[in-house]
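Quick one: structure for this chain?
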Amino acid sequence: MDDSARAAGVFRTRVEWIDTDASGIYHNSTVTRFVEAAEATLMRERGLGDYFASAPRVRYEADFLAPLFFGQEATTTVSLVSIGSSSMTWEFEVWGEEFAGRPRAAAARGRYVTVHMGTGRVAATSADGTRRSRPWPSDWVAALTATPGS
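Got it. Here's what it folds into:
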């Protein structure tokens, strides 16, 4: 998938007190929440409301590069890197916007993989009770690979 065809979602927010430790610096887990919000934005834009119930994360890696502070604005972007028959690979970046004399800086970046498990408990479970991945629905693939507005 070339960069021009990548599906991307953007989430802009402010770091709230709940996102920080007592020193006012963000918890690493805040990155996951911001990334999922950016992903949810993309899925809503593409009409894929059932995605989250069907696509658990099976791998997640992050590099934490700089702190984010209570009150600082942050911008998170997720980009679809590749779609397999039942998995998707994503990249993300979290940026802290200019704040208290500090320039805009990358706070975190990483990658994760989601796998399609179907919808509902029955669809995601085989006859022997094990969970098995399912191929992505073709309309989901089309929605995520289409150029917006086309």
